[in-house]
Amino acid sequence: VQLQACGGGLVQAGGSLRLSCAASGRTFSRFAVGWFRQGPGKERLVVAALRGIGDSTYYADSVKGRFTISRDDAKNTVYLQMNSLKLEDTAVYYCAGRGSSWITTTPSGYDYWGQGTQVTVSS
Fold first, then answer.
1. Can you name the residues that pair with 15 across neighbouring β-strands?
2. N or C: which end of the chain has fewer CB within 10 A?
3. CA angle in degrees (0–180, nearest 5) for 45-88-38
4. pLDDT the model gives residue 103
């Protein structure tokens, strides 16, 4: 299974970006997926997660109301829509998938990882 993340970039505070994560080799639709981020010198933390087989989601408190995770089964792609971006959202963002439909918020619970895409929010 390979995950290809893209969509990062430089954006001003208050702006929006949409990250995409395309999967090959396995169908996303039945498996949980997550977006994580890691700032310089910081640990990798979950931002949002989406359960397989259903629409249950998880969001970190820091992004609730601003970020939305979604999935397009026809394209085997997961998205992270990021609105009202803040300086503290600056990080490398990773998509991840796991061989279970249940959400977990710990990185060790995911089996497949994308390569990361840089998001930089400027003032």
1. none
2. C
3. 30
4. 93
